[in-house]
Amino acid sequence: MTGDDPLEESESGESTTDGGDGNAAPQSELRPDGGAAGADDVALDPWGSSSVSDYRKLFEEFGIEEFDEVLEEVPNPHYLMRRGVIFGHRDYRPVAEALQNDEPAAVLSGFMPTGDPHIGHKLVFDEIIWHQQQGADAYGLIADLEANSARGMSWEEIDEHARDYLLSLLALGFDPEEGELYRQSENRELQDLAFELGADANFSEFQAIYGFDGETDVSHMQSVVTQMADILYPQLEEPKPTVIPVGPDQDPHVRLARDLAERMRFFKVTEAYASFELEDEERALVAEFYERLEPEEFDDDTLRCVHVAEALEETPLSELEVDASVLDSVLTKLEEGGMEPIRPRTRFFDRRATEEAFDALVETIDGEKRVYESHVDAFDLDRAAAEELAREIEVDNGGYGFQPPSSIYHRFMTGLTGGKMSSSIPASHISLLDDPEDGYDKVKAASTGGRETAEEHREKGGKADECPVYELYAYLLAGDDDEFAKRVYDECTSGERLCGDCKEQAAQLMREFLEEHQEKREEVEELLAETDIELESPRRR
Ligand code: TRP
Known about the structure:
GO cellular component, one term: cytoplasm
Function: Catalyzes the attachment of tryptophan to tRNA(Trp).
Number of helices: 23
Radius of gyration: 28 Å
Bound molecules: tryptophan
Helix content: 40-55%
Subcellular location: Cytoplasm
Structural class: alpha/beta
Shape: globular
Enzyme class: ligase
GO molecular function, one term: ATP binding
Strand order of the largest sheet: 1-2-11-6-3-4-5
Strand content: 5-15%
Oligomer: single chain
């Protein structure tokens, strides 16, 4: 423990506030958004160093959406959601809606048992548990195949750590009777699904997504299809909105899983205006002119392909907001369509349906329809109804009907010493198994967003947004008490709260949390023994 922090003796007013062991990161590298110090540029690499220097780039470059944008639709949002710790999502809306309407939904996340579970993993435990409490089917899995293949962990080490993750998950409130716990290596259904998904993924794709090359071993690749299967596993019995809470480093996996889910579908539903296919931009043009032109203005009250072509040709390119090449190609298609009427319709493409499924679809479509070799056009069915029908037919005919899985992303915690929080740097993180006194000491030794001197701190206020200790309050120590979190923030930034007292309070809370958590871990030993998850792998190499 260090006592050399001037702010810890309130008025002394000299030297640094950063205390610690002199390994504090330069504050200038810390980001106001709570990102990690000295982080590299944004690269989402599931097996690389997981730090993100600029969360905004994740929105711009990777298409992750801001969580705030769906927050209002979430019933009793968790404090991690309210405080922006969960900062991003992909397609979370269907999950939020399902929770709101008490419809089926699922949550699943996985843990690589490579070390002790720490307070960063607690975020994910909490996310799973919260979704379970909101009514979702909950799954927690031990990614032992991945730990063995991608990290070279022995099965003995894996067993030890797996047990620790599971105990913490249960101690924090996961209900194993309602939810399911499994390890990848012991789940036969999962392996079968992985095998099936593997038939739809190939090496070039893995190369592009994960940077795999000729040296990458095959088991590592197998662990990827296994994770794809993990992500879709909750939908094996029936399709349902499923959320995968993870750090943003896992986003490549989420994107691939969303892709594969789509590739497994029997039918693809699109909108069309005539018998031929249009690209998205072309379709938008035709849609616009379909709205704009009055059929009565044409010969037999019918708007035909040639009419749209003519109208398009009369419109200056600058008004159309597309490239000349798009215009060219849509004109060619429309001219070839000639006198064919333009009529909006919903199209079902046969992607991989069985013959029976295709026939069943044709049979079930109400109203006017036209059947082609590998698609059906329905004229009295809107897009949403068509999607629903396609899924129903698929499921009735032995398909999965997967919904694209959703994800939510939490911020990485800043390490206590300022850099990134890493399981390989003990002082940077607090393990859920740390002796409570060590937890206390680590917080006392943490770097802070305090000013050089107490005087300056009082005058300018502390930099709570750049402070690992404030993060501890916001992410963990304040629990559900928003008022408390806000008070700490306000008192800090107004200069009232000095780092010494603040750390003392945080350190005590951390000690209490660890004591309590570890007691609960002992209590749930029995619960764990009662679950059917395998705790000792028969594998030994
Ligand atoms: N790859 C994840 C990690 O590195 C672990 C994992 C395996 C996982 N399967 C998953 C996470 C499914 C979320 C969903 O920690």
